[in-house]
Amino acid sequence: MAIAGAQLAIGIAALAAFAAPVVHAQSYPVKPVRLIVPWSAGSGTDLMSRSLAAKMTEALGQQVIVDNRGGAGALIGSEAAAKSAPDGYTLYVGGSVSMAISPALYTRVAYDPIRDFAPVSLVSQFSNALSVHPSVPAKNVKELIAIGRSRPGDLLMGSAGNGSTSHLAGELFKKMTRVNMTHVPYKSGGQLVVGVVSGESHLSFSPVSTALTHMKTGKLRTLGVTSTRRLPSLPELPTVGETVPGYEFGGWQAVFAPAGTSPDHVRRLNAAILKAINTPEFKDYLAKEGSELVGSAPEQLAVFLRAEVTKNAELIRSAGIKAE
Prior knowledge:
Layout: H1 16-19, E1 33-37, H2 44-60, E2 64-68, H3 75-82, E3 90-95, H4 96-105, E4 117-132, H5 141-150, E5 156-159, H6 165-177, E6 182-185, H7 189-197, E7 203-207, H8 208-217, E8 221-225, E9 250-258, H9 263-277, H10 280-288, E10 291-293, H11 298-319
Helix pairs in contact: 2-9, 4-11, 6-11
């Protein structure tokens, strides 16, 4: 999958040279490494992080321990990570919400995604699925656009809440297609799926992983995915961009360290992550979740992050999105 904004389609094979052993202090790490996850136990990010931590433990020869710091839409854990000692023993799983959306959405955020973190590596990217309730007669994206333009404001677009990835994906669609839909924010992704399956809302841009079950049972009709190319796990689904040129939106997960962490430690951690995510077990886990594997060098993650921060801030501003 091409990466949004920075267009970083990076295969693990292309990073083999970077992932090779680097010259570093052989004494590092000499104790367990903490991996802060700014979401509660059992969340999608938590489950991915635990799978990653297990494989990183093997690669580093030291235990990587998941430290859940959920609350306040990932702000609590993100702030804790930003304020941690830059000694190489604290890592942080940042994503599209905590690093590229929340800083633009909230007026008081106690961390700066670019200033306060040292990029280590991208891990994965996930797409959203544009799904409609069966009562909506559209069989493809083109027909949905035609319906929306003929009935301005009638289509109810559900989301997991103001500023969620499902909300921003929908707002970008509205902006690029000039379709006026009414936004219906729910309190969670679970409530959103229930709302669309029941017909309370007409459509949503939910993560593919949350829509899979209802796609298979016919309770939702999926018209397309928001990635730049079709997903290998769902090749029959077109991308929204095939109808709306240039449209792309997706979430992502990456590993960061506190700013000031030794470049040697960052390189060691990067090599461990690339080794971890290239294992068959981790690849299989991501495939089952509807996500795709993405690895990167620290410098590439830095470029990607800046592009994501800029893109989402502009979308939030132009759509007039406010925090709930």
